[in-house]
Amino acid sequence: MLSRVAESIYWVGRYVERAENTARLVSLNMNLLLDMPGGARPSWSNMVKITGSDQLFNEHYKNSDELSVVRFMLTDAKNPSSMLNSLAAARENARTIRDIIPQGAWEQINALHNTAKEKAKTGIAQKHRTDYLSNVIKGTQTLNGLFSSTMLHDSAYHFLKMGRSLERADMTTRIVDELSSETTGNDPSEEAKNSLLWMGLLRTLSANQMYRREMEVAVEREAVLEFLFRSNNFPRSITYCLNLVEECLGSLPRFKEPLKTTREARKLVQTVNQSELTQEQLHTHIDELQLAMVNVNNSISNNYFSLV
Amino acid sequence: MLPDAELELRRELATNTIRTMGITFRVYSNKEGSIDREWPFDIIPRVIDRSEWTAIENGLKQRARALNQFIDDIYHDQQIVKDGVFPESILKDSVNFRPQCVGVSPPQGIWAHICGSDLVRDKDGTMYVLEDNLRVPSGVSYMIENRQVMKRVFPELFDDQSILPVHDYPARLFEMLSSISPRRTSKPQIVVLTPGIYNSAYFEHAYLAQQMGAELVEGRDLFVDDDDIVYMRTISGPSRVDVIYRRIDDLFLDPEAFNKDSMLGVPGLIRAWKAGKVALANAPGAGVADDKVVYAYVPEMIRYYLNEDALLPNVPTYLCMHKEQRDYVINNLDKLVVKPANESGGYGMLIGPHATPEERKRFARLIKRDARNYIAQPMLTLSTAPTQFGTEVEPRHLDLRPFILSGKDISVTAGGLTRVALVKGSTVVNSSQGGGSKDTWIVDTEVQ
Hints:
By secondary structure, chain A is mainly alpha-helical.
C-alpha cells in the first residue's frame, strides 16, 4: 500500500470522526442548556474551548453568544475544524484515493458534504438544528457502516480505523476535560446540576444507556470517569480506542515504533485511577494523555507516511 | 414518446445521479482558477446500428495496427521514409518525435496501446476519422459513467433493447496492460500514473485505477533505483512496479530525460523503460503519429504496411507545408477549418466560415510563418442529434471517440464517448469549451 494513500485514508478517518464529534457536541450543548436552570447554564464559549480554537474564535467574533459559537463550530469557513470544513477535508482526502474507497462510500461522503453545505444556512437556526445535526451524525454513521461492510479489511481499513480511533479518544478527553470542570465537586447543594452535567456528558458520547448497562450505578463522577477512561467494551472509551489502534498496528508491517508509543499512552490510562483524581489532577492527567496521543499520531506518521 | 413532465423528471434524476456519483471534470478559468464541475450530460442517447458499427470497428483496428507499425518503423529503420512514402522533412520538424526513443523495442512492437480516435459523420452519412489521439487520450471513464447514469434513469429501456455493454473496458485495459509486463509473473504490479488531483482528467485516472484494482500513483510515489527498476513507496517499504499506465505527457515523465524542471515525473523512468525493466503505456514518443500532418498520411501507411485500403476515410486535409496547398488554404480561409498540428482540446483553431476577417488575417500570417504546423480541412456539415433543453428538444452537433486497445490483441469499445456541442450551431464539443455528452448505444436490431 502506498504511503501517500495510507496517509489520506487515515485522515479520512480522522476528519469524518471530527465532523461527527463536532455535531454531537453542539447538539448536546443545546439539549443540556434547555435542561439547566437559568443561572447555572454552562456558557457556549466552553464548546469553543473544547476544540482548542478559542484564540481563532476571538479573532473573528466579539461575543460568544449562541449563534456565533454555533456558526463558528459548524459552518464557518474560517474555522479549519468546523464541521463543514472537516467534511470537506474528508472529501478532499477521499477524492485522492477513490481507487481504494468503495463506490458507495465515496457517494456517501460526497452526498454528506453536499447536503450539509446546502442546508448550512437554515440548519444552524435553532428550530432546524437538531434535525440538521442528527442527519449529519446519521450520515457519518452510514459512512462508517459502508466502510466496515463493503471495504476490504486490509491495511487501508486499519489506517482508517486508527485515524478514527485516535480522533475519537482525543475528543473524549476534551469533552471530559471541559464538562467536568463545570461541575462543583461533591457539593450536595449542587447535586442536581452536577448530575445533569454528567448525564449530558454521557449523552454527547451516546454513552448513557451503555453506561447503565455496564456500571449498574446511578450517574456519578467516579463511575462516569471509570467508564469513559477504562471500559474495555464501550467503543468511545479511551482504553477501547487505544486497544483498537494497537490491534490495527498488529496487522501492519513495521509496527514496532508506533506500537511502543501506543502502549505508553495506554499504560498512562491504566496506571492512574481517574475516579480518585481531583478536578485539578484530572486536568493535568488529561493534558499528559493528549500529549501521549499526539506522540502516537506522530510515530504513525513518521513510520508510514513520510516518504523515504 | 415521453410527455414533457416525464422528460423533465428523468433529466432531474440524471442530474441527481451525476451529483451523487460525483462525476466531475475540472476546468481552468482565469477568474476562479481550477474548479470541479458536474459532468454535463444529455439524457437522449445516440444510437448506432450494430451492423454499421462492426464496419467502423474493423476500420479502427486496421488503423491502430498501421499506426503502431509506423511508430515502430520511425524509431528503427524508417523504411517508410527510405521508400519515399513519408517525407523526412515532416519528421525533422515534428515536436512529438523523441530522439531518446530511437532504437527502443517495446514488447510486441506496440507503442500506442491506448488510442482514442475521433469520428464525425458528414451530411451524406459517411463516418470520417477526424484525428487519432495517441498520447494520453481521455474520456473513456465518462463513456462508462454515462451508461451507469442511463441505466439508473431509463432502466426500462435496457430491458427490451439489445444494447451492447461498455462496462468491460477496465477489465480489457487490465488484461492488455498485464500482457505487456516485462517480468513474467502471474500478477504483475500495474499502476496508473497521474499528475494529481488538479489535472482535468484526474477523475478518470482515479476511476480507471479503481476499476482495475491498480495502484493510482503520483510521480512522488515512485523512484528508480540504481538497478534501473521502478519502485513505489509503500508502508512496507519499496515495492517493484512492472507496468505504468501513464497519464502524464512525455515531456513531464522524467526530468532526467526530458523537461528537467518537471515535478510530476520520476527521475530515471526512461532509463528503466529503455532497460526493459518496466513497460510504459503509451510508450514515450508514440505522439509522433499524433500530429495532424502525419494524420494526412494514415491512408498511405495502411497501404504501405498492411497492403490494404483504408476502411475508414480521413477528412480531406490540406497540408500547408506544400506550397500549392498552402496557397489554396490562404485563399479559401472563409470555407476551411484550420488546425495547429499538435494541439489538443480544440485550442488554437480557426473555424473559417464563422470567423471575422481579422481572425482570418491573423491565421494567414500564422500559416505563412509556420507552415509545417498547420493543416486545413473543409468545413464538414457535422451530423446532429436531438438534445434536451428544458422541455424542448433541439438538434446539436456531435462527434464520437471510440477507444482502441492494442496489446497481444486489439479491441475496440462498443461505441465510445459521444460529445455534443451544447451551443446552438457550434461544432466545438470539448468539455473544456462548453461541450456535453450523451450515452452511445450500439444496438443489435437483428436479435429483436
